[in-house]
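Below is our example:
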Amino acid sequence: MTGKKHILVMRFSAMGDVAMTVPVIKELLQQHPDLKITYVSRPAFAAFFEGIDRLQYVKADFKAEYSGFTGTLKLFRYLKTLGPYDALANLHNNLRTNLLQALFKLSGISGQQITKGRQEKKLLTRFPNKVLKPLRSIPERYADVFRQLGFSLTLSGKLGKSLPAVNTFADTKNQPWIGISPFAQHKGKIYPLGRMEQVIEMLNRSRVKIFVFGGLPYEKAIADEWEQKYASVTSVIDRMDMKQELDLITQLDVMLAMDSAGMHMASLVGTPVVSVWGATHHYAGFLGYGQTEDNIVADDIACRPCSVYGNKPCFRGDYACLYNIHPQDIASKLLALVSL
């Protein structure tokens, strides 16, 4: 495509998936200075896109104003008022985004949608006869959508350290800062919390400051307990908004995260991540943008991965893929990345 263009981009969930679109969008806009993007997603993710030139973020509340079929029609009518558009990029490929894509097609706006590679992922996660090989990364799958729309796009795959606007929470930094994002949506992704506490106990013996990230009430209760037990630990759960969390993550020396949103938020602001993988595998394409495989901690048990998203029950019943990882291995990996 040539000349000034306007693209409507849709990706509604989950947090980590939306975060992974950000570096792709940034590189697309950098490589096409005459391009404008209207990006529609949930209100909670707006902070991910702050400060991106030529990007308009539309907050769509699917639990209230835009819920259900009638809400989708209402959103379509509203989005039309923000056009005209030259094309639509469907980075989600679910029922709601596909309906919106169909409605825009009827209005004369062509679109492309992400290819998720479901069959490849089935081969990766089956057992026995697993086909254990790297699949196309999710950022490249996002980029493919724009390429199919006629935009050349080369992803650098590099972390870009961004500077925080303000120091919103912590005192002056006079020691290494380590973030820990120990939670995930599904059990198959979560390093057992008792063992995670052992990691924290080991780190607590070193001259580091630890910030624990999360969101749900039970996560806050656990993080608050750790804060009470270990002098180096500070919980930020329910004490910061998303923008403040991103500012803090920018200042970390390293983040410890599961295959979850914490990894992708750190990648967003250029902070290196030590990532722990259990039932899932980075071969499915979800490693944080710009992160290195050298910082992965995982066990090579033959049945792994058994799931793309970590949502399937362990057929062994013991989650050996997670319990086989020793806390000392995680702590050592983290401490090797900071200057004490």
